[in-house]
Amino acid sequence: MTPDLIAARGEIAAHRTTASRLVDTCLEAASGEACRHAFIGRFDAMARAAATAVDAQHAAGAPLPPLAGLAVSVKALFDVQGQVTTAASIALADRHAATCDSPAVARLRAAGAALVGHTNMTEFAFSGVGINPHHGTPANPATHALDGLARIPGGSTSGGAVSVATGAAWAALGSDTGGSIRIPAALQGLVGFKNTARLVPTEGAIPLSTTLDTACAITRTVRDAIALHEVLAQRVVQRSGHALGAMRFGLPTTLMLDSLEPQVAAAFERATATLRHAGAHIEDIALPELGDLAAINATGGFSAAESWTWHRSLLATHEAQYDHRVAQRIRRGERMSAADYIDLLHARRDWIEQMQIAMRGFDALLSPTVPLVAPLIADLQASDDAFFDANGKLLRNPSVVNMLDGCALSLPCHRAGEMPVGLMVWGPALSDDTVLDASLAIESALAAMRS
């Protein structure tokens, strides 16, 4: 199979295939067993029409658009004109269809994407696990191929990641509030880039936290992540092309390396050793500021306060239709006072200032994306304690970057035949181009190790 979107676009550009042919292949994959529960709404006719239009324009000599009529899936919290936006909740099933695309969707469409469907997700995006009791939970296709067991896909962009992993889409539009792009990417062996939040508009999407929400994408490769970011942010990524030997990375020893499962620890240590051998300068740093986050968020954090603001009226009338685990987390915001929220704003501002000082001199920081490999779906469905324990572990590392108002990319660092493990490359706000540039070099250096 063509390895990524950029390669597929090249095949179309060279007239060796067509967008229509590739979209048909993706739609066939979307109907396969590996993609079961990945979509809650399919846009087959819309996707085929978009691909046909690109093919006709290309045949007539028009420039091929950036996304070339290729299949892209859309997380079910983004408005798509003519479709009902539910955020995978039955509490919103009776909503009217969206009258226009959200800005992120409009930018994908304008760039020639063939939108193939609304993907399943954690209800209202409120967990990193990916379980959905209303629409079913898509099993992790990457791990299923290894042991045949139904493991979690990661969330909240669960179906989006599965759509990319199964070949039903070349990229998936999603959101990241505490890791919701990077967690499923890490658990499924994909690439997930969380840009600086302000670079892509989040209007036209059902919010979780208006402070932390980020609109971004899951892809197969770093170069695809760059292509999708350039479309979504309407900007050109500036690439230095520096070799790893010209880069300096920090490796935080506070929090990020705690309680790693053996498979994660082994893959991460092997990856960093490979990068050092390739010339990268990697320096352990204490970064004690990371230890302050639990106290800063002790009253519930931004997601609880801001989701309660959006959901309080709907919960009053439809709470019985919510996933009880989601409702429980939203209701934490009910107990937060205005003073708590203002204190949180001030504490975050001060913490970001301290972190920026501590991170100076590094091109980016390196960490495991999450400290565990994908648990079994059945184990987390059966126990609230097991669910919330896994959810806390999954969110621990990636949520640091959202609190920082930073940017981060997760890319796979495991070997073929091993459970997927993600390596996170991250930095402060507006260091997106540096993080992407470093990630390209890291991906290249790890390629031989991973084969």
Automatic annotation (TrEMBL):
Domain of life: Bacteria
EC id: 3.5.1.4
Keywords: Hydrolase
Domain Amidase, chain residue ranges per copy: 24-436
UniProt cross-references to SUPFAM superfamilies, sorted A to Z: Amidase signature (AS) enzymes
UniProt enzyme class: hydrolase
InterPro entries: Amidase (IPR000120), Amidase_dom (IPR023631), AS_sf (IPR036928)
Transmembrane segments: none
Protein name (record): Amidase
Organism of provenance: Piscinibacter terrae
Lineage: Bacteria, Pseudomonadati, Pseudomonadota, Betaproteobacteria, Burkholderiales
